[in-house]
Specification:
The complex is a heterodimer. Chain A is of the alpha/beta class. In chain A, about 35% of the residues lie in helices and about 20% in strands. Chain A contains 17 helices and 20 strands. In chain A, the strands form 5 sheets. In chain A, strands 1, 2, 11, 12, 13, 14 and 20 form a 7-stranded mixed beta sheet that branches. In chain A, strands 7-6-16-17-18-15-19 form a 7-stranded mixed beta sheet, with helices on both faces. A two-stranded antiparallel sheet of chain A has the order 3-4. The longest helix of chain A has 25 residues. Chain A is globular and about 65 Å long. By secondary structure, chain B is an alpha+beta fold. Among the domains of chain B are: about 130 residues, Gyrase A, domain 2, CATH 3.30.1360; about 100 residues, Elongation Factor Tu (Ef-tu), domain 3 (Beta Barrel). In chain B, about 20% of the residues lie in helices and about 30% in strands. Chain B has 9 helices and 19 strands. In chain B, the strands form 4 sheets. In chain B, strands 10-11-12-9-3-13 form a 6-stranded mixed beta sheet. A 6-stranded antiparallel barrel of chain B has the order 14-17-16-15-18-19. A 5-stranded antiparallel beta sheet of chain B has the order 5-6-7-4-8. The longest helix of chain B has 12 residues. The chains are: A alpha/beta, B alpha+beta. Chains A and B meet through α2, β5 and β9 of A and α2 and α9 of B.
Chain lengths: ~525, ~400
């Protein structure tokens, strides 16, 4: 365990996940003496890269970047510290019958590729991209600003609400309507309006289920679809990048930036309690009994641990406690990561391998995805799961020894609560299921496997601490977003305890490696400090 | 009819795009992959290979070769020892830059000089009674640039002595059976090497380099990726950032070394070495008559994004370099310079430019306004003057 250099700080951030690092970096940049306290031996939370087999680097949990807010890159000067989002130049979606969809960086070729599946879908694809981009552009400011407090009578909040309403009114009717359709409806309904190709719809609908216990035909999947398109990389909505060295490489960049601004990071230092005196935070107590004082304590953990574990819930209003207790986590995603002897072979494409330089999407139709969801509804993992594969060594040679590869597979559905069983019993069966599914698309796949790591929702919870293994620190469902994330009236990063703040993905605007909660929370802390609103 | 380089059979089969352009009369790949940005990242994160054969190459030999070049080139060739290389320029009598190139000193009396355009008659006319021979060897030699953080591993796997070669040094070596010269040079601003090989051996060298690069993410890269890398690296391009004074119609189109930010080449200007342009350059320095100073520009990201967002547009972040003139203004809307190469840099995550500004504004951190068009109207966006190169990884010279 590393030791803090001081006994008292202006601010202590509990948890060195990406939002904790972002928050700590902003606070330090503003001149606060800042300590980031991490339970594990490395920072990054669920954004880490680990060498599980010599020479093979695994992105154990999260595995790509898109929603990271561009302002954070600039304001924290991340490029000085090695920020390098590598292009993923292709997207590959194998079909069940040997057909496939392979999209790249050439727009007109993509249109041709879509028209190979359906002539009608060709310009529909352009229209869809345009419509989604319009909605993303309209919604983007919501990600970059503190959401108003719907329940406050504070004049400043009333002005913010009025401004938000005005923004909505200023939108073209088609854009606003599409936004509402996406935010409240199903991805299937939205996509059916554009497309007829099942393979294309499966490919696009896959983004509508990630991390959330919904199927593409569930109301609410539209919101997840929108979130996965609102991310941008180098100015392109819905574009993803692979950070050099994986998302662990990214969080190491964040840690260096935070330290460069003066933040201190201590590892292997689990926080047991946020200390309070008379309803005000005074510091943190570590598992080994060390107490470190601070005027501000920020929890980067998920809402359940922020409100029910780090502090005594009896100090909190009971309606908040009730809301947090019914906040939906129900992790439903797993990871299976492979070390491979060589690239898998997709028979239709012969010995080609360039199709693997981006995501490979095993979700060949809407029916496939919906059936995968069916099993999860009844408490079991999909017998043919949705798999989002990324063979990252095709993009970054540092990920695996020459000629060898690492393959990150995001798996859905794998519900946290299994009916009449548990994940310790089913872990390897899930790995086998995934491997068998991949074998169906890439004959001979199993022969390539040098190493396999299965990460169930239980493992995510155990290792990272995310409740029920939910990768977003709370599901992306409308009742848990914006005004209501993580609870009505507490969506502005403050808590009922003076000087105690929240900055994890369980706060607005939510999960994915976005950094926005960490940044927006720091703004709120600094604003309160400037206003002397609390006795900081 | 265009020519093809000795690597062409490999270049042709590697070019998946069918997109070609002409460079100095040769057919060259604009890009090999659909995504030129993927090739660019090979340069910045793995290893990329560029066929730079079309550059004009002159072999300069003879007892007086050093003396000749020390009078022709602005940078003092006497300080370039055998086994070393110089980036250099040559100027006219008025102290304007004609061209730039890299000169390799192969031996005491043997040099190899590159240039973007033909210069043989110009050089030959300067020989006079000197014992110098100049021969154009463009077609005899193939040149392959191997660039990027993994280039050392790839090159050293073929020629182990390259493990320790220093920046702007060169050695004679072998790749397979082919005799080659390998220099630690390039046009990307990254760790990198250039392999100079007899045309007859070109294909075997290409094959061996590609084989050695397997598993290291090796990719051939085309013109677009090269031009991206060179802007980040602050490396000047003829007819983009400056023009040859030989063919310029007036002085507006000419530049002095000082104006191009190449004053560092002339540190020994007070020595007694005569070279073409020396007197004029000394005068320029003494009288401070420089009109411009070449600088880097980093566009204010917030200004840029807000400008487009307010216009109802998604801020474009296009990495493909634009070689056009973009006017620069001060806060009073007075023109203070112009940008000559503009792009969005993926590694810097900013729009950047190579530009020239009035000398008094050249201090890093100074703010100027860059003119762009948004919704078909001229708009100005803030940019900060910055020292070139804008991207300069330690590995380049380490």
């Amino acid at each position: 365990m590393s030791q803090p250099s001081q006994r008292k700080y202006d601010a202590i951030v509990v948890g060195g996940g990406h939002n904790g690092l972002v928050n700590g970096a902003y606070l330090a940049k503003a001149g606060l003496s800042t300590l980031i306290v991490e339970r594990r031996h490395l920072v990054g939370g669920a954004a880490i890269t680990e060498e599980l087999k010599p020479g093979f680097w695994f992105t154990t949990f999260s595995y790509a970047l898109s929603l990271l807010r561009p302002d954070i890159i600039h304001e924290l000067e991340l490029t000085k510290h090695g920020f390098m989002p590598l292009l993923m130049p292709s997207s590959f979606a194998p079909g069940e019958d040997g057909d496939y969809l392979l999209l790249g960086q050439d727009h007109d070729l993509n249109v041709k590729e879509v028209s190979r599946l359906s002539k009608k879908d060709a310009d529909a694809y352009d229209q869809y991209e345009h419509d989604i981009s319009r909605v993303c552009q309209a919604m983007k400011p919501l990600l970059d600003n503190v959401a108003p407090n719907l329940f406050s009578k504070d004049p400043e909040e009333l002005v913010a609400m009025a401004a938000l309403a005005q923004q909505m009114r200023d939108l073209e009717p088609r854009v606003l309507h599409n936004a509402v359709r996406l935010l409240t409806g199903s991805a299937a309904d939205f996509l059916d309006d554009y497309f007829e190709s099942e393979l294309l719809k499966g490919y696009l609908a896959s983004s509508s289920i990630i991390g959330t216990k919904v199927g593409p035909r569930s109301q609410g999947s539209g919101l997840v679809l929108l979130y996965h398109n609102i991310g941008e990389h180098d100015g392109v909505f819905g574009s993803w990048a692979f950070h050099k060295g994986g998302n662990g490489g990214f969080t190491q960049v964040l840690a260096r930036a935070a330290q460069a601004f003066g933040a201190e990071i201590i590892l292997e230092s689990p926080v047991t309690t946020v200390m309070t005196v008379n309803g005000k935070a005074t510091g943190v107590a570590l598992e080994d009994g060390t107490e470190i004082a601070a005027d501000v304590v920020v929890s980067a953990l998920d809402p359940r641990r922020t409100f029910l574990q780090l502090v005594d819930p009896r100090e909190l209003p009971s309606d908040l406690v009730e809301n947090i207790e019914r906040f939906r986590f129900q992790g439903t995603s797993a990871k299976v990561n492979f070390a491979l002897d060589s690239l898998p072979r997709f028979p239709t494409l012969g010995d080609r391998g360039d199709q693997y330089r981006g995501f490979t999407n095993i979700g060949p139709s809407m029916d496939y995805l919906e059936r995968a969801y069916d099993e999860a509804k009844y408490g079991w993992y999909s017998s043919r799961p949705y798999i989002d594969c990324a063979i990252q060594s095709t993009i970054d040679p540092d990920m695996a020894p020459p000629g060898k590869h690492v393959m990150s597979c995001f798996i859905q559905y794998a519900p946290y609560h299994l009916r009449e069983s548990d994940w310790d019993s089913e872990r390897q069966n899930l790995g086998d299921t995934v491997q068998r599914t991949l074998e169906g698309f890439f004959p001979g796949f199993s022969d390539l496997v040098l190493h396999r790591e299965v990460v169930t929702p239980l493992d995510i919870e155990r290792v990272v601490g995310l409740t029920e293994g939910n990768i977003f620190a709370g599901e992306f469902l409308a009742p848990q977003m914006f005004f209501f994330r993580p609870a009505p009236g507490w969506n502005q990063y403050r808590t009922p305890i003076d000087g105690y703040y929240q900055c994890g993905s369980g706060t607005h605007p939510g999960g994915c490696v976005m950094g926005a909660p960490g940044k927006l929370a720091s703004q709120q802390i600094l604003k309160d400090r400037a206003n002397g609103a609390s006795a900081i | 009819m265009f020519r093809t380089t000795p690597f062409h059979p490999r270049v042709q089969s590697a070019n998946e795009t069918g997109l070609w352009s002409h460079w100095a009369g040769y057919l060259v790949a604009e890009k090999y992959q659909m995504a030129e940005k993927f090739e660019y990242f090979a340069i910045r994160n793995a290893v990329g290979v560029f066929d730079s054969t079309p550059l004009y190459k002159y072999r300069i030999t003879g007892t007086d070769a050093e003396k000749f070049l020390s009078g022709v080139l602005a940078r003092n060739i006497q300080k370039c020892l055998p086994g070393q290389a110089h980036y250099t320029i040559w100027c006219d009598d008025s102290g304007y830059v004609i061209e730039d190139g890299v000169v390799l000193r192969l031996a005491g009396d043997q040099f190899l000089l590159t240039s973007a355009r033909p210069n043989l008659s110009y050089f030959q006319n300067l020989i006079g009674y000197s014992r110098v021979e100049i021969e154009e060897v463009t077609e005899q030699l193939g040149t392959l640039a191997v660039q990027g953080p993994r280039s050392r591993q790839v090159i050293a796997a073929l020629a182990p002595e390259m493990e320790t070669i220093r920046y702007f040094h060169l050695v004679d070596s072998k790749i397979g059976d082919a005799a080659v010269t390998i220099s630690r040079t390039g046009f990307t601003g990254d760790l990198g090497y250039e392999v100079w090989v007899d045309s007859a051996d070109a294909l075997s060298v290409w094959d061996r380099i590609m084989d050695a690069g397997e598993g290291h993410g090796i990719l051939p890269f085309g013109q677009i990726a090269l031009l991206m890398a060179r802007i980040e690296a602050g490396l000047l391009l003829l007819d983009a950032d400056f023009e040859s004074s030989r063919f310029a119609w007036n002085d507006e189109h000419r530049s002095t070394p000082i104006e191009l930010g190449l004053g560092w080449m002339l540190r020994d200007l007070d020595d007694d070495r005569p070279f073409i342009g020396r007197k004029a350059i000394r005068h320029e320095l003494a009288e401070q008559t420089s009109r411009w100073k070449l600088v880097g520009l980093v566009v204010d990201w917030l200004d840029y994004d807000q400008m487009y967002n307010n216009a109802g547009l998604v801020p474009p972040k296009d990495h493909v370099p634009v070689t056009e003139e973009f006017m620069l203004y001060d806060a009073d809307y007075q023109r203070v310079g112009y940008a000559t190469s503009f792009m969005y840099s993926p590694v810097l995550q900013r729009h950047i430019a190579i530009a020239r500004v009035k000398p008094e504004l050249a201090k890093p951190g100074n703010r100027v306004d860059l003119e762009v068009t948004v919704n078909h109207r001229y708009e100005r966006v803030g940019a900060e003057v910055a020292r070139l190169p804008l991207y300069n990884p330690q590995r380049k010279t380490a």
